[in-house]
Amino acid sequence: MPLEVAVLIHRRSPRVRRSAVAAAVAAALLALGACESGGDKKAEAGGSKGPGVVAPGKPGQPARTLSPEEAAKEAPDDSPNSADFAYAQMMIVHHGQALEMAGLAGERAGSTPVKRLAERIEAAQKPEIGAMNGWLKTNGGAKRQQGHDHGTMPGMATEAQLTQLRAARGAAFDELFLKLMITHHQGAITMATDALSQGNNILIEEMAADVIAQQTSEMNRMRSM
Q: Both 62 and 87 in a single domain?
């Protein structure tokens, strides 16, 4: 009895197709390893040729059953491109400013909700910086872009605004913090959206999608505050 791995691939997104093909290949290879000895005996007896990957065809065309080797050859290359490296390098700096602003809230914020929001921002973005630094190290990328003015990134507060925030206390701090952080989150979402459309690496895509989901939620919370 042949073993097949059926994969449903979303036709609207090349990125989803790429992830699905990769998952299908991995599943097929695992299945192949699990039944290698039994499969060899069946093959010798004229039985199954081994596990396959069912790949949906183009509109109007039938699905195809591929061997793991064929599926691996057809899987798109997700090697990082310049947009992936630029996103990681710039978002590390972008997150760094968010942490700087959030770090001021403990002693300056006037309301408990603002302090708790700042704590959540720190708890989320510190690990994300670590993940992006790790990704750059693994892929041989520099931690910072050379010759790039990071102050021009979307949503970045100016030095004058940061000086004003450092000097504020109580309700004045809360209001300015929320305004600056909403703008900062909007900028991060813009950068993450660009990475999804221009990048090529699956891990960067996942990190960018997480930024969009999390910061959209936080931004809505801040607007209600």
A: no
Q: Which residues of the chain have pLDDT under 50?
A: 1-14, 16-17, 20-21, 23-48
Domain boundary among 74, 98, 117: 74
CA distance 181 to 218: 10
| CA dihedral for 64, 70, 72, 76, sign (positive or negative) | negative
Helix residue ranges per DSSP H, the chain: 14-34, 36-44, 68-74, 82-108, 112-138, 159-167, 170-198, 202-224
- The residue behind tokens 């910086």 is 129
pLDDT of residue 143: 74
Residue the block writes with tokens 């939620």: 217
Same domain, 139 and 29: no
Tell me: do 92 and 182 sit in the same domain.
yes
Specify the DSSP class assigned to residue 140. Answer: T
**Per-residue pLDDT tens over the stretch 126-162:** 999 999 999 999 999 887 766 556 678 999 999 999 9
Q: How many angstroms separate the CA atoms of 52 and 3, rounded?
A: 7
Tens-place pLDDT, residues 41-62:
444 444 445 566 776 766 777 8
CA 40 to chain centroid, in Å, comes to 40
Cα separation of 92 and 86, whole Å?
A: 10
Residues 86 and 176 grouped into a single domain: yes
The residue segments making up the domain with residue 39 are 4-74
Q: How far apart are CA 22 and CA 29, in angstroms?
A: 11
